[in-house]
Specification:
- By secondary structure, the protein is an alpha/beta fold.
- The protein has 12 helices and 18 strands.
- Helix 9 links the parallel strand 9 and strand 10.
- Helix 3 runs parallel beside helix 4.
- The longest helix is centred in the middle third of the chain and has 13 residues.
- The protein is elongated.
- The two termini are 39 Å apart.
Amino acid sequence: MREALALAQEQLGLTTPNPSVGCVIVRGDKVVGRGVTSVGGRPHGEANALADAGALARGATAYVSFEPCAHFGQTPPCANALAAAKVKRVVVGCVDPDPRVSGRGIAILKAAKIAVTTGVLEAEALRLNEGFITRLRLGRPLGILKLAMSIDGRIAAASGDSRWISSRESRELVHRWRRECDAVMVGAGTVIADDPRLTARVAGGRDPVRVVIDAQLRTAPTARVYRQRSRAVTILVTTPANLSRARERFEHRGVEVIAVATHGGIIELDRLMLEFGHRGWCRVLIEGGANLAASALSAGIVDRVAFFVAPKILGGGLPAIEGMKSRAVRDALALTELSARPVGEDWLLEGRVVPRAARTG
């Protein structure tokens, strides 16, 4: 199962709108087939593993990180394919929450007299496809807020300089995360201050869609994010009032321009994320800056935070999050599943945001 999860992890971000599923087929004490969901979401991992194993799949055990599908789409159900291959046993990491599948894939296998074991490394299997699950349940992608800051909570010095607060190892990890996400989102201030490319500069990587939140059209069409050569598009998100002007300025560069309603002058990011959910996206990496971080947290679209804390003290400058004004400590957003690990010279703090509706006091 760990090998099946590792296969799925390597393909994460490339299988949208489907989950990334790894499958390992074992006969006796020998692996006879390996497969993972193909780029674009099909063929599925089980089909690829069965093709790899061929006739050796008969009587074997299939380890699958996600419940085999049970519905007819552009490909036949994987549960039926496993039954047709005459595997003897199927070990499943986690049940698929998709109502078209949930439990039905397992039922098909059991009806075919195949032994089924579920819940093996379940927490890891659920976490790996958390974005897919979030889209199914909430209609939007998983939101991951990433910030790099000094130990006193600053993302830039008083002059605006922010290169580089985080270590080289931290930046390399972020590039891998970009490859695993459908989109990376930044605010206009970040584009103006840093002129980022927002590409995934890792071996075998692919760029995410670049999303710039620019309600007031402060960014210049000459910014690198708009003219970067990439197969991934750049999306400029602005207000309905600025839509026509934005199209005149940016669409000739191949930039997609969309308008989203505002509240109090701030783009309603929850509506934007629902639009991304309609596009089938599963994971969005929110990279700041300070105002976008506050807006995203306030809008309830951040599910996980990832803060790189560098062993530096700036003593002033731009705070990591600007604009969230909790009136009391009890109003603060709470985190759970908190973890900390070293990355280069930095410490990476990660946690899940507890939704306000889930708080009891």
